[in-house]
Amino acid sequence: MIVKYVLKIIRKILPDIWLKKVKYIHSSLLRRLILNYGSEKLEFNHKPIMVFSPHQDDETFGCGGMIALKRELDIPVVVVFLTDGGLGFVDLEAEKQRSIIQTRQQEAITALKVLGVEESSIYFLNKPDGNLQTLRIEERENTIKDICHLLEIYQPGEVYVPHYRDCHQDHEATYQFVQEAIKQTRIKVELFQYPIWLFWEAPLFVKLKFRDIAKAVRFSITPVRDKKHQAISSYGSQLEILPLDFVKLFLGSYEIFFAADNVDMDV
């Protein structure tokens, strides 16, 4: 509670532009710390993967390099978007919201094509953006059933999902839904979390604990770095509103993941 109170004061005191600079410096240092001292190397393998993305762009920011490397070797990759992305725009008039949903869906198809994923391997569950945590019980259960169905069809060897404490309700709900679906289907998969907002929003050790860092792995995407950059550039609607420094965090030669085999959701 004290930390949250301090963060609120900092946000009020610092002008927005300086707050973003502080976040970028913190995020960059945290990534460097994990890459250089707090992670093991993740070796490439030939297992098929499924990537679950709450919004159209998270998959590319978080694991676009992994996707591209898998597809270059014709390894199956399936991408599932949980929300319709309807809040991904400054102006939320109903007509423009419908437009941004269509725009973001097309941007996702374009970005994933750059990464080598066929449109037939892309799924849009179209749940309301910003509301995954508050879905009615029946709709929540149906969403988990949809995820179960896809897991059973494709039988991935690895699953990628946002970090369970990623500082965004849709991201954290996506983790919860996918973890529950894996339990229900009882399929044997390796579960990896990709951070999107975690480094940007949360000071070290507030949400990212020592035990999380101990599960960190780094994955080199040097051979496909340019391809990931091109895929990110496909998300024009989001690049207009996302902080430039935030986007820069995902343009490096490594992607960071966290193993999630025994994550305790209650702590």
Task: Show the helix and strand layout.
Layout: H1 2-13, H2 16-36, E1 40-41, E2 49-53, H3 58-72, E3 77-83, H4 94-115, E4 122-127, H5 137-154, E5 158-162, H6 169-185, E6 190-194, H7 198-201, H8 210-213, E7 216-220, H9 225-233, H10 236-239, H11 244-248, E8 254-259
Parallel strand pairs: 1-7, 2-3, 2-5, 3-4, 5-6
Antiparallel strand pairs: 6-8, 7-8
Helix pairs in contact: 3-4, 3-9, 4-9, 5-6
Q: Average pLDDT across residues?
A: 90
What is the level 1 CATH name?
Alpha Beta
Taking the alpha carbons of the first and last residues, their distance comes to 15 Å
The beta-strand count equals 8
| Helix share, percent | 40-55%
Order of helices and strands: HHEEHEHEHEHEHHEHHHE
Biggest sheet character? 8 strands, mixed
Q: Estimate what percentage of residues fall within beta strands.
A: 15-25%
> Which strand order does the major sheet show?
1-7-8-6-5-2-3-4
Structure in words:
By secondary structure, the chain is an alpha/beta fold. It has one domain: LmbE-like (Rossmann fold), CATH 3.40.50.10320. 49% of the residues lie in helices and 15% in strands. The protein contains eleven helices and eight strands. The protein has helices at 2-13, 16-36, 58-72, 94-115, 137-154, 169-185, 198-201, 210-213, 225-233, 236-239, 244-248; strands at residues 40-41, 49-53, 77-83, 122-127, 158-162, 190-194, 216-220, 254-259. The chain has an eight-stranded mixed β-sheet with strand order 1-7-8-6-5-2-3-4, with helices on both faces. Strand 5 (158-162), helix 6 and strand 6 (190-194) form a beta-alpha-beta unit. Helix 3 (58-72) packs parallel to helix 4, helix 3 (58-72) packs across helix 9 and helix 5 packs across helix 6. The longest helix has 22 residues, at 94-115. Residues 262-267 have low confidence and may be disordered.
